[in-house]
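Please decode residue identities from the backbone states below.
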């Protein structure tokens, strides 16, 4: 069962490698749009005691990004493969158990969610390093 689960997980990782640019762009654009609209747009003048609204909303945006990436990796992918590509029937006809198929898809969704949230957290650090190399602080660059 472990090898069957790993096989399904490996298949999803190969598909991720083929679509990496679109996945990475999607996982970066979505949190950035939420940050621009809710963080800097609506919450510009909102304060919660000693913390700003931006400090309050950023963890939620990262969690939302991870959940969307995980759901899109598993739910949408399974529905498309079931309805259009008919690969779900091929998996069910293969000598692997249904639980291996489910666990492999769950692990791939977890990996995509972790990668999406990690890239969402590391992107501002990367921007800050670029702005520092350019001679200005992060807030002066924008």
């Amino acid at each position: 069962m472990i090898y069957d689960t790993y096989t399904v997980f490996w298949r999803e990782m190969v598909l991720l490698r083929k679509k990496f640019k679109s996945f990475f762009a999607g996982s970066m654009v979505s949190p950035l749009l939420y940050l621009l609209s809710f963080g800097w747009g609506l919450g510009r003048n909102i304060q919660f005691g000693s913390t700003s609204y931006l400090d309050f909303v950023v963890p939620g945006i990262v969690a939302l990004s991870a959940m969307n990436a995980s759901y899109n990796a598993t739910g949408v992918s399974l529905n498309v493969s079931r309805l259009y590509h008919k690969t779900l029937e091929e998996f069910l006809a293969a000598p692997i158990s249904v639980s291996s198929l489910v666990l492999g898809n769950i692990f791939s969704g977890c990996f995509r969610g972790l990668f999406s949230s990690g890239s969402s957290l590391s992107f501002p650090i990367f921007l800050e390093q670029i702005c520092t190399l350019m001679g200005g602080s992060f807030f002066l660059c924008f």
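Observation: The chain has a mean pLDDT of 80.
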